[in-house]
Amino acid sequence: MPHFTVLDGRLAERSVRELATWYNKRCPQTPALTFETHLMILRAYVTLVTDSPLETIAGLSRARYNILRMLYQQEDRRLYMSDFAHRLQVSPTNITKLVDGLVADGFVARGGDSVDKRKRWAQLTPKGVQVVEKALPAVAEHVNSLLSCLTEEEKQVLVHLLAKLRLNWLSHASPEVAEQLLEPPAAGEARGLIRSRLN
Question: Both 88 and 112 in a single domain?
Answer without folding.
Answer: yes
